[in-house]
Each structure stands twice: as structure tokens, then as C-alpha cells.
Amino acid sequence: MNVSSKTICYGLLGNPVRHSLSPAMHNAAFKALGIDGVYLCFEPDGKDLKNALMAVKALGFGGLNITIPYKEKVMKYLDEITAIAEKIGAVNTVYMRNGKLIGTNTDAEGFFRDMRDTLRIVPKNKKCLVLGAGGAAKAVGFALAGGGAKEVIFIDKDKKKAKALAKRIAGYYPEVSARALKDIDETYAIEKIGILINATPVGMHPGKPLIDIKRFSRDIAVYDVVYNRETELVSQARRLRIKACTGLGMLLHQGAIAFKLWTGKQAPIDVLNRALKRAMKMR
Predict the structure, then answer these.
(1) Catalytic residue of the set 6, 50, 57, 71
(2) How does pLDDT run across 9-31, given as a tens digit for each residue?
(3) Whether residue 192 lies in the annotated active site
């Protein structure tokens, strides 16, 4: 990677982010297209979030990705929020226009594309169970509702947060039954769940999954937004021959959309995909 006085900086802002594969993906794309850019990771403390964004603006960064735990918190510090990010209530991508920081959400589209392409499934007329109610769960929930899901059910340790998210989705999609559960045991009583999505960080490190996939029908499809490893949830599903995948493809597709916003150029998907797979092997 050659860095010059004209190199434009891009990056991922979150905490923690040192595990991220995004630098490998975006730096490979810059190289392939001959763009003088570099993508780095930044881990500001929560109390420094506003200052970090002001620095990004003052220093002329080309754009940012936003991840845990700042997808919701970052919104109040941006100059503008796109309609899709406002609707979802979370930002995962920031781009510059006329000196302004503009926040949008590419997670929802990235998730939908990968669910369709990798699992060969769409949510239309299906019951969907989402674990989590944070920034990733918001994007997933809206993607499911927008894709015609029959029902979108949330469960989170913060019950008020899950209930608020269900209410928000119902406000935009009254034709979709959106609700929150009080306890994880309630999930096992729900019949014919078609898609189960883990939209929490559980699984980033080895450990027991939040839910026992054996207690569901073998017709269920499992999607885990965690991408840095094959989670136990995905492994368990595959052992049972249940259709399942990690969020690596979601990372790929949301990154490609962000790349186009930052540079104005179509992201080389094959280059991004190869870079991600190489980075995974090196772990």
C-alpha cells in the first residue's frame, strides 16, 4: 500500500474494531481501482465520539463505517441523516457532501442481498425471529418488514428496547405483525418460524449461543450477522443440516454500497470477496 500526500483516509469507527475485516476489503478495492485511499480502524471512547467526528470532518476524510456501539449514538452528531437511516434509526455509513457529514444505512440492503443470494431465501410471508434490538437488529428488522415478512418478532435483554423497535416497524409497515417477547423461552412456543437472525454480538467469541436451534423445525433458515468467525449457532445449524450462514456476505454487500457512496465508483465485488476470504484464512 502506497501512501502519499494526496491519500484520502477512510475508516471504521467503533469499539472494539481491531477484529474487523473491513480494512482488508476496502484497501484491496482502492488498490484494484487505482484510488489513492487508505482505510483504517478507530476506537474512540464514547465520551470522545463527537470530537472524533468533528476531526473526521476537519481533516477531510472520504467516509466512515460505523459499528458497535455507535450506530445509534452517532446520529445526533451528523449534519444530515438520509431517509432510510432516519426510518431505521441507525447509521452504519457516513459520507461527505459539500463539507457535510451525511449518515445513511447500508446494513439493511446488505443483509437482504446476502440472505437472498447465500441462503436462497426471502422473507415474504414468513415469520422471522430476531435476536437483539440494537443498530444491527433495526436494519435487519426493517429489511425483513420491507421484504414482505408476515411477522417480525424481537427479543432482547432490554425488553423496552425490543418493544420500541417492534412498535417503530409496525408504524411504517402496519401490514406486518411486529412484536417483542418478554422471555427467550417464549420463542420455542412460536410455530413455523421461517428465519432466525442473530443480530447481537454474541458469537464473536467462542461460547454458547443465545438460543437452542434444536428446538425449532428443520425447515428454519439461520442467519448470524457476526462475520469474524463461524459462530456456534451457525455450526449447530449446519450439523443439523439446517440452512445457515454468517454475516460475511452482509459485510461484503453493505461495504460495496458504502464504497460507491464514498468514491462514486462501483465496488469490484470479486476483489472485495477475495480479500475478505484471505483475511479470514489469516486469522
Answers:
(1) 71
(2) 999 999 999 889 999 999 999 99
(3) no
